[in-house]
Write a structure and sequence with these properties.
434 Repressor (Amino-terminal Domain), Lambda_DNA-bd_dom_sf, alpha/beta, Rossmann fold, DNA-binding, six-stranded parallel beta sheet, elongated
Length: 327
């Protein structure tokens, strides 16, 4: 839009007052005749006028922008969450701004400060990491919903699953099948979700009779879950005690473990069963050998928007734990 185009420009072209144009731009058309509305809309198109969302937010005290800050959009699970949230926000009349932090706290802060300057109405934090700006924003009481990982700066509204129970369900599955050498693979720099999945798995195995020494554990460095699985697989399959069942705390870790297994001449699931916690639809195309705890990421958007709307109305929204299934 040219810098000199304003409501006054539209009003002059349409032959109406600035206040009339303002009302029509803001959707209040009942006080104008159909002919006037048509004239104003034609003038808006002719001069290329576009409403300024920041200016409108300053005037009304409300913005239609919602920021989603995601940790890694290469992950199909996060991409599915982003897609479902954008659709739910659009249906509710909001516009989503999407930022990928690549799991880096300094980039997360950069985006949080930028979105704050844009006067967004709310924040959706997908797999957030601890950072100074997040602590500051959380303490300010800004409308925020945390997704898949809980607020690393304290309590906060949360949408996700009971990760500990999911880990325990995998342990029960291995025990019921008679597996004797279970293992778990997870990131060394784990999130609350990863830690809860691992702790739930280990606790249930202990309940089912395993000693700590009998449970194989392998972690991996870095932020790439593919690389974590691949590196951990080298240690697991190269050791004296080879597992016959492995919990991978994400689909991508399972992909990495499977790649290493194939290189060692092992058959999955014949020689070793892999179970992940994610279960994205991509698995049926690229990993039919993988069993998963399937998380309903496609419905996260509706739950996130419902939570934001409660917060905007001043009502309480603590957490929403969604059901999952063993696929």
């Amino acid at each position: 839009m040219p810098e000199d185009v304003s409501l006054a420009t539209v009003a002059a072209r349409a032959g109406v007052s600035v206040s009339t144009v303002s009302r029509i731009v803001n959707g209040e058309m009942r006080r104008a005749s159909p002919a006037t509305v048509a004239r104003v809309l034609d003038a808006i198109e002719a001069v290329g006028y576009r409403p300024n969302p920041v200016g409108r937010a300053l005037k009304s005290g409300q913005s239609q922008l919602v920021a989603m800050i995601a940790a890694n959009l290469d992950n199909p699970a996060m991409a599915t969450i982003a897609s479902s949230t954008e659709a739910a926000l659009r249906e509710a009349g909001y516009v989503m701004v999407l930022c990928d932090t690549h799991d880096r706290p300094e980039l997360q802060d950069e985006y949080l400060y930028a979105m704050r300057a844009q006067m967004v109405r709310g924040y959706v934090l997908v797999a957030a990491v601890a950072s100074p700006a997040l602590s500051e924003l959380s303490a300010s009481g800004a409308p925020m919903v945390f997704v898949t990982r809980r607020n690393p700066s304290g309590n906060g509204p949360f949408v996700g699953i009971d990760d500990s129970a999911a880990g325990a369900a995998v342990a029960d599955h291995f025990a019921d099948l008679g597996r004797r050498a279970p293992a778990v693979v997870f990131p060394r720099l784990g999130s609350s979700a990863s830690r809860d999945r691992v702790s739930g798995f280990l606790a249930r195995l202990r309940e089912r009779g395993w000693s700590d020494d009998a449970i194989i554990r392998a972690d991996g460095e870095g932020r790439s879950h593919l690389q974590i699985g691949y590196d951990a697989g080298a240690r697991i399959f190269g050791g004296r005690d080879r597992p016959d069942a492995i919990l991978c705390v994400s689909d991508q870790i399972a992909y990495g473990v499977n790649r290493r297994a194939l290189e060692r001449g092992l058959k999955i699931p014949g020689d070793c069963e892999l179970v992940s916690i994610d279960g994205t639809p991509l698995n049926q195309w690229v990993a039919p050998w993988l069993k998963s705890i399937e998380i309903p990421y496609a419905i996260y958007g509706a739950e996130i928007v419902a939570g934001l709307q409660l917060i905007w109305r001043g009502e309480a929204f603590g957490e929403r734990l969604l059901p999952y299934k063993f696929g």
